[in-house]
Design a protein that fits this description.
With 224 residues, this protein is of the alpha+beta class. It has three helices and nine strands.
């Protein structure tokens, strides 16, 4: 299975910033300096028509920061690093990827990363795609960058209190002394499962949990 883990800022609903109620946290220097996050709409339902370039339906557009110091490939998501996509180094996108969005839990004593939601059967783009939406600001529109898209029915946003901060959804970081997990990058390709039995078991477990999840989904829930 093609799997991609993405580290994003923590929010409750990911349907835009609501001051004082749902603001991005733990998203790195950009979020700290601007109090903004491009991933703020990752679980906003977007109705699209055929004119958008996608089959008509409801979708989620996902953003994950992919900054790189390599000028030649800056901001590229190296899709050839996704398991099973090794021959796609010249492709601009790849289909049928399980994207698992994760975030640092706010106010935790230690830095703890948990799954906040996922896209099944997502299309992943090497470079950011852009989509323009009407807006009430002086420009009259808002341009959303995204590097993942999936149909609404394939998207799940875990409820904050009852689900997210549970050990079964905890994602390791290499800095914790574990042989696998997030490093310095916001994307983790989880490669090397053939040589790492613990990684193989972890991936089997997290995929099974996602496939069998039948709990509450906040995809239609908005900040009150």
């Amino acid at each position: 299975m093609r799997i991609l883990f993405c580290n994003i800022a923590w929010m409750n609903y990911y349907k835009g910033i609501v001051l004082g109620k749902d603001e991005p946290q733990n998203g790195g220097s950009y979020v700290k300096e601007t109090l903004d996050a491009h991933e703020k709409y990752n679980f906003e339902i977007v109705p699209l028509t055929k004119e958008s370039g996608y089959p008509e339906g409801e979708y989620c557009l996902g953003f994950a920061e992919t900054k790189s110091t390599n000028k030649a490939t800056r901001n590229q998501l190296r899709i050839e690093n996704i398991y099973g996509c090794e021959s796609m180094e010249n492709e601009d996108s790849v289909d049928d990827v399980l994207v698992i969005y994760c975030a640092l839990y706010p106010d935790a004593i230690e830095k703890e990363t948990y799954v906040v939601g996922w896209y099944k059967h997502a299309t992943i783009y090497r470079n950011y795609e852009m989509m323009r939406f009407p807006s009430e600001d002086k420009e009259g529109n808002y341009v959303q960058a995204y590097n993942a898209i999936a149909k609404k029915e394939d998207c799940v946003l875990l409820p904050r209190a009852s689900r997210r901060k549970a050990n079964i959804w905890k994602i390791p970081r290499k800095s914790k002394g574990v042989s696998y997990g997030f490093g310095q990058s916001n994307v983790w390709f989880a490669r090397g499962r053939e040589e790492n039995k613990l990684l193989d078991q972890f991936l089997d477990k997290i995929v099974k949990q996602i496939e069998e999840y039948d709990g509450e989904n906040w995809i239609d829930k908005y900040c009150e």
